[in-house]
Amino acid sequence: xxxxxxxxxxxxxxxxxxxxxxxxxxxxxxxxxxxxxxxxxxxxxxxxxxxxxxxxxxxxxxxxxxxxxxxxxxxxxxxxxxxxxxxxxxxxxxxxxxxxxxxxxxxxxxxxxxxxxxxxxxxxxxxxxxxxxxxxxxxxxxxxxxxxxxxxxxxxxxxxxxxxxxxxxxxxxxxxxxxxxxxxxxxxxxxxxxxxxxxxxxxxxxxxxxxxxxxxxxxxxxxxxxxxxxxxxxxxxxxxxxxxxxxxxxxxxxxxxxxxxxxxxxxxxxxxxxxxxxxxxxxxxxxxxxxxxxxxxxxxxxxxxxxxxxxxxxxxxxxxxxxxxxxxxxxxxxxxxxxxxxxxxxxxxxxxxxxxxxxxxxxxxxxxxxxxxxxxxxxxxxxxxxxxxxxxxxxxxxxxxxxxxxxxxxxxxxxxxxxxxxxxxxxxxxxxxxxxxxxxxxxxxxxxxxxxxxxxxxxxxxxxxxxxxxxxxxxxxxxxxxxxxxxxxxxxxxxxxxxxxxxxxxxxxxxxxxxxxxxxxxxxxxxxxxxxxxxxxxxxxxxxxxxxxxxxxxx
Length: 555
Description:
The chain is α/β, with parallel strands linked by helices.
């Protein structure tokens, strides 16, 4: 079973008990639809006296009951389709979001944000139609097959005529699925590409405005539109072609049934009621609209499942089940190698030991691998070779809860998550101590609802946003990793934050990526990174004797 098939059955399962309800309602509606022509025919024959004095009232009552059943089944089917789809879409979106957030950042980065949003919003909505579409696909042949049986029972010649029409119908639909599948898949890919370009442009809107390149950006964002139009045109062309051929086939088939039925009526093999029923069965069985609609929905569901499954097949980051033993927070990198997608080494054989409770400054020229080393140190990225240990425990062996409680990250441009300011600082506990350490408490106290203020209503500078992100990082119990996390702070605020970070009473291990000479001077150790390797580890005072080290700060 392919990943797309597994996702389709997961969507059907997410619909819950609505799937059997839809099946019962659809089958009941189809049965009533097939019984109605026969009941009408009997009523006509009873009315004209062709059934030997049989009462027409009884058959008219049966017709009325079948109409009521048809209406009731239609109401249940329409409501159940919406309810089942809503449940399936919600379940699939929860699954997809959880998986995306569980991916390794490097893996997630291979998918543009706009493309992921397109899959989550558009393609999952298509895949969520799986339950009603499966029911529809499983019952779509009931009307033509039932009509064939009924026509054969009325007159075998009518059944034979109808078989010829069904063969033509099969030939007509033979190429529809393949053509529509390719067109829909191409349309969804182009749609995802367009969404990705649009998200990139919105993220860089200020830069585009400042550079005056809006015209070029519009052309770049709209570049996938011709492809989108081509696939969309192809989709509608296939649908229109099938509908047009069906519009020709259906009346021809009904005309053939009328001709054969008229001859049978003249020969005395049919009653007027039988002819009326035969005409209705011919119209019901030859109706191509339901079949085309079912196939079109099946194609879209299949394409949506395939697009969503492409993300779900990406391996999620795995965690162990261990917790950290008691320890001071000793960090060790042993033979760490990280490669680019083209195989080029970005970190090459890094060996580093940071004593528990020490403050390590990571310095080096731009592109040396400082941020990558910081990412590896707290398992934002797993190395391609080597291992990283915290208090002797390999980081991949830790449970997610243990890792996230022990390690905290602060970034130059943090993304704040949560409904309120307090939620952005972190869940649980008192946010005030870490907010004070990050020099953001006074700012929060001036907000209307302080830590309960909705995050979306707070206007913040880059420095204030950076300090809120830093406060969240300061909740770490054992290892604090800061990647240029104080670069947007003014001098006074930076001094207050650095004083908190260099406090000797802080027993956590701190790894700080910085370009500031003051940070390196206050650190217990400095790791000098160059070209993906550790060039030297020592105190700032000792390393300062090397002219190349001094040049790092001058640059």
